[in-house]
Amino acid sequence: xxxxxxxxxxxxxxxxxxxxxxxxxxxxxxxxxxxxxxxxxxxxxxxxxxxxxxxxxxxxxxxxxxxxxxxxxxxxxxxxxxxxxxxxxxxxxxxxxxxxxxxxxxxxxxxxxxxxxxxxxxxxxxxxxxxxxxxxxxxxxxxxxxxxxxxxxxxxxxxxxxxxxxxxxxxxxxxxxxxxxxxxxxxxxxxxxxxxxxxxxxxxxxxxxxxxxxxxxxxxxxxxxxxxxxxxxxxxxxxxxxxxxxxxxxxxxxxxxxxxxxxxxxxxxxxxxxxxxxxxxxxxxxxxxxxxxxxxxxxxxxxxxxxxxxxxxx
Length: 314
Hints:
Elements (H helix, E strand, L loop, with lengths): L2 H11 L5 E6 L7 H16 L3 E6 L5 H11 L9 E6 L1 H10 L6 E6 L5 H5 L6 H10 L2 E9 L2 E3 L2 E4 L1 H8 L2 H7 L1 H14 L5 E5 L2 E5 L1 E5 L3 E2 L3 E2 L11 E6 L4 H12 L9 E6 L1 E5 L5 E4 L2 E5 L2 E13 L5
Parallel strand pairs: 1-2, 1-3, 3-4, 4-18
Antiparallel strand pairs: 5-6, 5-18, 7-10, 7-16, 8-9, 8-15, 10-13, 11-12, 13-14, 15-18, 16-17
Helix pairs in contact: 2-6, 3-4, 7-9, 8-9, 9-10
């Protein structure tokens, strides 16, 4: 089945009953208000006429395997046509990797700390809205990035933000949410090693002390890294923070949080179809907020397009 035929079939499903597998990360909804919001969303999905099943993850890799199994049964009698990732950006990334190459639809119930992809597509947390999108939205074909063949939805990075992700205290994150990232960022400002990365965007070469590769414009929640990046545009953007040192890291963080990093003369944003980053092999690389590999990496637009359920008009 080609992409156009799959999309036509998916559009037809907006007027009938979608068969939905909800892959739920319970660690993302341990707080009562999140669990209540999740349960309300399920009730609204059912009211919209969808048939759904929930499967809970127990640990890393479970969401990937569940999505992969669902994709293998796509198109077969009794199989699912829609997978919903209920959790944070890490859970969503696992599901996307499991669906890699599939024409299944992907929906999102945002339950995480930052919910970057949900922000990118303008998906609010209201259970009515989320259920309506899952049950009736027409799929939008969006682009994914790849890091050494591993898909990502929004961003990858090495340097300062990767060290924050690598050292984050998961217990503190569970109890305090975004504050854990603030605390770890303050610590990494003073102790993160000064590194130099060789970055090649298509054929152009650069040197940077920290790098974000952006497929979408959002970063760490409501902030922006590459304002021109769009997930429906097959271009990756390398955000290059050029100067090393504690003061530079502090200045870059403040500028990014205030949206002024694009005005700094030592921050460069370069778009391209392929971004290669080289440096010390011990340097971690984050993909959608989780550490998954180390240098060197080759980032490019994936040949696979994701059929994402998103609010209309975006």
